[in-house]
Design goal:
The protein is an alpha/beta fold. It is built from nine helices and 26 strands. It folds into three domains: 196 residues, FAD/NAD(P)-binding domain (3-Layer(bba) Sandwich), CATH 3.50.50; 131 residues, 3-Layer(bba) Sandwich (FAD/NAD(P)-binding domain), CATH 3.50.50; 80 residues, FAD/NAD-linked reductase, C-terminal dimerisation domain (Enolase-like, domain 1), CATH 3.30.390. The structure holds dihydroflavine-adenine dinucleotide and nicotinamide-adenine-dinucleotide.
Length: 435
């Protein structure tokens, strides 16, 4: 007979937010037996960013249990036994296929039901697949995506099987840049293909992108811009052999990695909860339009106080902090205490090859590049400020030290006025260090 279980708190999704929520529930005094985390993954919550970086390194790749949460933010590593010690039920390998918010019931693919008093939706995103657009041949073998540890295992196995072979990376965003680098580090012959005029257009200016594109080219990565994959050839085993591009050219391929964006996993809740900007709409405590139901991480569209608008953020820092905020709000409500509103400063970062950048704030207005952005320099260090209405609203830094990154974060938060863009360009990091 299918099981039925009841918990005071259920976290749906055992990813980054799920893990950080669990730690916060314990900090806030949740009692053994009160909390369950339900995840379709087979492993306890882990720091997802490792999958596109150290997990795929040719030497000493990172493996679980090494990067379970909360190591990514310098906290205690929550091993599976931590959950049992704290009386938290970690319900793994369990996909929820139906959510009925009216009866507070979740139903799994195997027919088990879970009821709750408070629900935290932390389902994250799924990858957009080329087969979703009907791209010809997109279901051939070795056309791979990356979201979960299972995907990373498939990718790692393909890299081992195709040593010295050809890899095509479709997409010029985060996955595109991080995967091209790590595939190159594995000695594959790598070509990146993306439709825009430069990589990472949602954040990078043309000048910032020019640095990364040259750096990658110097490392041997080939870059094909302004076109998309329209089809794939495969051999008689169904293994991909070539990528056909819209501009008519054909790239040989033993492995294809696709990173063409994510889609927040909100389908279970369609029609039951208010949505906005593709995500589940929440207040500043991440409570949704349904009382007692919270949404955090990639799926939440929340008030971004600093910019007086509402946004959805698909980055790890926010997934951690939103989870903590929601749990504080849940426990605060029980105690009759209000918690301060979420006041989030956007923070994104990436690492590839020997490079490492951080960005804080908003990339709107006029951009001013500063520093040494010569990709052939021994240790390039450069950045960009974004200026809107005479104030610095965003700051990017490649190659910064911890203190320097701290300084650009402070600038983005403080939004100091700027009188001369030329002076700002000349001062560069000095401007940030004076704030
Ligand atoms: P997350 O995706 O972490 O977790 C969702 C969980 O819910 C998963 O375990 C999933 O299986 C589960 N789930 C979903 N639906 C379910 C259902 N119906 N039933 C049961 N379980 C279900 N960000 C950054 O700032 N810097 C970085 O370097 C990186 N690097 C990076 C690499 C890679 C490969 C990816 C995919 C993403 C990043 N990110 C990142 C983004 C960051 O990892 C992401 O924003 C957070 O993981 C979001 O946390 P969530 O908890 O919202 O979702
Ligand atoms: P993305 O939105 O960063 O990039 C998508 C890219 O896909 C676009 O820049 C574009 O170049 C490309 N594209 C779109 N349609 C295309 C098409 N038909 N053919 C070829 N290219 C096409 O998404 P992503 O890189 O797939 O990342 C997925 C998710 O993982 C995002 O939520 C991202 O934030 C997250 N992630 C974050 C990091 C990080 O923060 N360092 C690292 C990895 C992944």
């Amino acid at each position: 007979m299918a099981t039925e279980k009841h918990f005071k708190y259920v976290v749906l999704g055992g990813g980054v937010s799920g893990g950080y929520a669990a730690r916060e529930f314990v900090k806030q005094g949740a009692q053994p037996g009160e909390l369950a985390i339900i995840s379709k993954e087979a492993v306890a919550p882990y720091e997802r960013p490792a999958l596109s970086k150290a997990y795929l390194f040719p030497q000493n790749p990172a493996r679980l249990p090494g990067f379970h949460v909360c190591v990514g933010s310098g906290g205690e590593r929550l091993l599976p036994e931590w959950y049992s010690e704290k009386g938290i039920e970690l319900i793994l390998n369990t996909e929820i296929v139906k959510a009925d918010l009216a009866s507070k019931t979740l139903t799994s693919a195997a027919g088990a039901t879970f009821t709750y008093e408070i629900l935290l939706i932390a389902t994250g995103s799924s990858v957009i697949k080329l087969s979703d657009f009907g791209t010809q041949g997109a279901d051939s073998n070795n056309i791979l995506y990356l979201r979960e540890v299972d995907d990373a295992d498939k990718l790692y196995a393909a890299i081992q099987a195709k040593k010295g072979g050809k890899a095509v990376v479709v997409g010029g965003g985060y996955i595109g840049l991080e995967l091209s680098a790590v595939l190159k580090m594995n000695n594959l012959d790598v070509t990146m293909v993306f439709p825009e005029p430069w990589c990472m257009p949602r954040l990078f200016t043309a000048e910032i992108a020019a640095f990364y594109e040259s750096y990658y080219t110097n490392k041997g990565v080939k870059i094909v811009k302004g076109t998309v994959a329209v089809g794939f050839d495969a051999d008689t085993n169904g293994d991909v052999t070539a990528v056909k591009l819209k501009d008519g050219s054909v790239l040989e391929a033993d492995i294809v990695v696709v990173g063409v964006g994510g889609r927040p996993l909100t389908t279970l809740f369609k029609g039951q909860v208010a949505e906005d900007k593709g995500g589940i709409k929440t207040d500043a405590s991440f409570e949704t339009s349904v009382p007692g139901v919270y949404a955090v991480g990639d799926v939440a569209t929340f008030p971004m106080k600093i910019y007086n608008d509402v946004r959805r953020v698909e980055h790890v820092d926010h997934s951690r902090k939103s989870a903590e905020q929601a749990v504080k709000a849940i426990k605060g409500k029980e105690a009759g205490e209000a918690v301060p509103e979420y006041d989030y400063l956007p923070y994104f970062y990436s690492r590839s090859f020997d490079l490492s950048w951080q960005f804080y704030g908003d990339n709107v207005g006029e951009a001013v590049l500063f520093g040494d952005s010569n990709p052939s320099s021994a240790k390039p260090k450069f950045g960009s400020y974004w200026i809107k209405d005479g104030k610095v609203v965003g700051a990017f830094l490649e190659g910064g030290s911890a203190d320097e990154n701290g300084a650009i974060a402070k600038v983005a938060k403080a939004q100091p006025p700027v009188s001369s863009l030329e002076e700002l360009k000349k001062d560069g990091l000095l401007f940030a260090s004076k704030i």
